[in-house]
Write a structure and sequence with these properties.
By secondary structure, the protein is an alpha/beta fold. The chain folds into five domains: 200 residues, P-loop containing nucleotide triphosphate hydrolases (Rossmann fold), CATH 3.40.50; 68 residues, Orthogonal Bundle (Arc Repressor Mutant, subunit A); 165 residues, P-loop containing nucleotide triphosphate hydrolases (Rossmann fold), CATH 3.40.50.300; 194 residues, Orthogonal Bundle (PCRA, domain 4), CATH 1.10.486; 45 residues. Helices cover 40% and strands 17% of the residues. The chain contains 28 helices and 27 strands. Helix 3 packs across helix 4 and helix 14 packs across helix 15. It starts with a helix and ends with a strand.
């Protein structure tokens, strides 16, 4: 039979397992489709085959995908295969098909014909309006968390009356859920969760409608079945059949296509167990495994197979290829995260230089968003264009911009942009109307927003005053502190940490804020203030800042963390904070790849699902990072991490690099890391160690001369805490200094104009003056460089 079948142009080029899947007789089946095994091709060819052979009409097929992109691709391929009008076919995402169902039966579903759909942002606005109307304490019930609570209930198929409320807080949330439902009903709007739940209820509660669709859709195909949640599976069962005497009695055929080894969305409610439930409840007799991989060489596939074999409760399959072993999987052990990033960038440059690979065919994957910072910084310094896929570059992330705005206000209270960004973030009861009044007052007096606060009357003025006072107190408290301490205090006192601790998905943002402390630590020790600085910030005139203590005539014995940077043109000495803010602004504004430009792709492993690249780097393979420490406490969490690693490995076509670092700056502390267990689960014969295996483990002795050498306190789970250096006192001045300056004198500077000396410190080449310039604010100037003339 198969020989005659495969001669059909439609079936040409299919491998034996694909051919079986495409030409299955009626009945339920599970197709286990491994990574790169041609799953989309099988699905579309199956639909085309059913239509071509008269087993189904275009209106009798329902195909469900997870993304609009996948649905579009299927429709495009189908119209290329067959002369059939695909527009009327029910091929789309869960939400798209539910929308179609509700539009067709809007009266039965209790909706107006023109109901509107709320996206996530609209839903949050609706919840905020509700909270305002009912005077809800937003500190206790943040709107964002209420929106998550409502979405979570709907995903479980629960209406307010069905939710078990064991405590006062949950009872209040349920009450608000009920009010939100009424508000949406009044306004004729539905959110994403409602589309799904309302469709499920429509089918469940209307026998004639359900039976009509059960008869109509004789063939149901579901893509990415491993990503379905509880409600989506329940919705499918309504379309497939009815439960009689506790058993599911079905008509027609349901074909589920998926890969339990690539189920990585448990945090979004996906149930990997749905696949096993499907096999049991639908009494599936046919399980077809698509194991032929068309993407990668066998060294890569052998590594993926060996790794995932350590998971229990798998339906089980092994990827294979006819392409040959290819290059070995390269494993690199770096001494630190900075060294790891430097190695990675050097490798990328070599790959691109020889013309062997386009930058866009190289992907750098990481488990946690915060890891991108060191990699971005190194790519930036090397001038390699990169693009962060499905996310924002480190210094562009909202939480980082908020933190930097607070830090800028410490340096310059008159920075109105920063003031506006955080005056009501986290919320302090300062509304748009208050800010309008403030802006008008500032405009009328020709002063900054900070200086106009006293002009705003009443409660609004008091709230603004409290914000300004908080920033002023922070400025005093952080005087003379090192950069890491300053940032830590600002994050805590501003309320940013508290705000994100209370967010359902705030963990990622907290990791990024921790990484900001690491960024500062690594900046002061490595980039701006060390002798071997890599990327020096540039002041607004474009002049490079001089490098390291020796070139500045500063005391080489003074800890680098506290040494100011000196601009060679103006003599201005920047505090570590000011220099770091300059560095952050420069790095945020440059080196982002232009649209269409050939650029290295950076992304989290989650974002990489469904993509493929010639060359893949997976960094940070350390215990606590990948597998992530949040997932290591239970078997289920660890298996999900292993599936994530499996997804990461199977993105690579030709080359795969794995790396880990002995030390990593995490949360502002240096940790000594143990390599990930995943490296031990890979087959030795597929690997090539670029560094001697186990180098340095157990005998690790840090370089005694290193900046930030290890102190005795243990930091974090694995390691040592780096010391914080305190600023040494400035020696008292014994004789009249040669420059003849003293506090109170009026002076002139060629760039900053006239100013008044506030203080003098240091002596000889080390002397510096603090001068207030009316138009440029207060600056510290190195007197060996700045030419100050006394104004008589």
């Amino acid at each position: 039979m198969h020989s005659s079948l495969s001669s059909s142009p439609l079936l040409a080029g299919l491998n034996p397992e694909q051919l079986v899947a495409v030409t299955l007789p009626a009945g339920h089946a599970l197709i286990l489709a491994g990574a790169g095994s041609g799953k989309t091709r099988v699905l579309t060819t199956r639909i085309a085959w059913l239509l071509q052979h008269g087993h189904a009409t275009p209106g009798g097929i329902l195909a469900v995908t997870f993304t609009n992109k996948a649905a579009k691709e299927m429709l495009t391929r189908l119209s290329a295969m067959l002369p059939v009008n695909v527009r009327g076919m029910w091929i789309g995402t869960f939400h798209g098909l539910c929308n179609r169902l509700l539009r067709a039966h809007h009266k039965l579903a209790g909706l107006p014909q023109t109901f509107q759909i709320l996206d996530t942002q609209d839903q949050l606005s609706a919840v905020k309006r509700l909270c305002k109307q009912f005077n809800v304490d937003e500190e206790r019930f943040p709107p964002k968390q209420l929106a998550y609570f409502i979405a979570g209930c709907k995903e479980e198929g629960l209406r307010p009356r069905d939710v078990q409320a064991h405590d006062a807080d949950t009872r209040k949330k349920v009450e608000l859920y009920q009010l939100y439902e009424e508000q949406c009903q009044r306004e004729g709007v539905v959110d994403f969760g409602e589309l799904m739940l309302r469709s499920f209820e429509l089918l469940r509660d209307n026998d004639p409608v359900r039976m009509h669709y059960q008869r109509r859709f004789a063939h149901i195909l579901v893509d990415e079945f491993q990503d379905t949640n509880k409600l989506q599976y329940a919705w499918l069962k309504q379309l497939a059949g009815d439960v009689v005497d506790g058993r599911l009695v079905t008509q027609g055929s349901v074909i589920a296509v998926g890969d339990d080894d690539q189920s990585i969305y448990a945090f979004r409610g996906a149930r990997v167990g749905n696949m096993q439930d499907f096999v049991r409840e639908f009494a599936v007799e046919r399980q077809i495994k698509l194991e032929q991989n068309y993407r990668s060489y066998s060294n890569i596939l052998d590594s993926a197979n060996a790794l995932i074999a350590h998971n229990s409760r798998r339906l089980g399959k092994n990827l294979r290829t006819t392409q040959g072993p290819g290059e070995p999987v390269r494993v690199y052990e770096a001494s630190s995260d900075i060294a790891e990033a430097q190695w990675l960038v050097d490798e990328i440059k070599q790959l691109v230089q020889g013309g062997a690979m386009a930058r866009s065919e190289i992907a750098v994957l990481y488990r946690s968003n915060a890891q991108s910072r060191v990699i971005e910084s190194t790519l930036f310094n090397a001038g390699v264009p990169y693009r962060v896929y499905g996310g924002l570059r480190f210094f562009e992330r909202a939480e980082i911009k908020h933190a930097l705005a607070y830090l800028r206000l410490l340096e310059n209270p008159h920075d109105d942009t920063s003031f506006m960004r955080v005056v009501n973030f986290p919320a302090r009861g300062i509304g748009a109307r208050t800010l309008e009044v403030l802006q008008d007052a500032a405009h009328a007096s020709g002063c900054s927003l900070h200086d106009a606060v006293s002009a705003v009357p009443g409660k609004a003025g008091a709230n603004l005053g409290a914000f300004v006072a908080m920033v002023d107190v922070l400025r005093e408290q952080t005087q003379g502190q090192n950069l890491r301490t300053i940032i830590g205090q600002v994050l805590e006192a501003s309320g940013l940490l508290e705000h994100y601790r209370n967010e359902k998905e705030g963990a990622d943002r907290l990791e990024n804020l921790d990484e900001l402390i690491s960024a500062a630590e690594s900046f002061v020790t490595q980039e701006g203030f060390g002798r071997d600085a890599v990327a020096l910030p540039i002041d607004e005139t474009g002049a490079p800042l001089t490098q390291g203590p020796a070139s500045q005539g500063l005391d080489p014995n003074q800890p680098l963390l506290q040494q100011p940077m000196v601009d060679v043109d103006t003599g201005e000495t920047l505090s570590p904070l000011a220099a770091f803010l300059t560095h952050a602004a420069l790095e945020a504004g440059d080196n982002q790849a232009q649209a269409g430009q050939d650029a290295v792709q950076l992304m989290t492993v989650h974002a990489s699902k469904g993509l493929e690249f010639d060359c893949v780097f997976i960094g940070g393979l350390e215990e606590g990072l990948f597998p992530h420490e949040n997932a290591m406490s239970d078997q289920g969490g660890l298996e999900e991490e292993r599936r994530l690693m499996y997804v990461a490995i199977t993105r690579a076509r030709k080359r795969l690099y794995l790396s880990h670092a002995q030390t990593r700056l995490l949360h502002g502390q240096t940790r000594y890391n143990v390599k990930s267990r995943f490296l031990d689960e890979l087959p030795e014969e597929a690997l090539k160690w670029l560094t001697p295996k186990q180098q340095g483990f157990g005998t690790f002795a840090p370089n005694k001369g290193a900046v930030g050498a290890y102190g005795s306190g243990a930091g974090g789970r694995f390691g040592f805490k780096s010391e914080s250096f305190a600023s040494p006192p400035v020696p008292p001045q014994k004789q009249t200094p040669s420059h003849g300056l003293r506090a109170g004198l009026a002076v002139f500077h060629t760039k900053f104009g006239e100013g008044k000396v506030l203080a003098i410190e240091g002596s000889g080449d080390d002397a510096r003056a603090q001068v207030h310039f009316p138009r440029h604010g207060t600056k510290w100037l190195a007197l060996s460089v700045a030419k100050l003339t006394v104004v008589e």
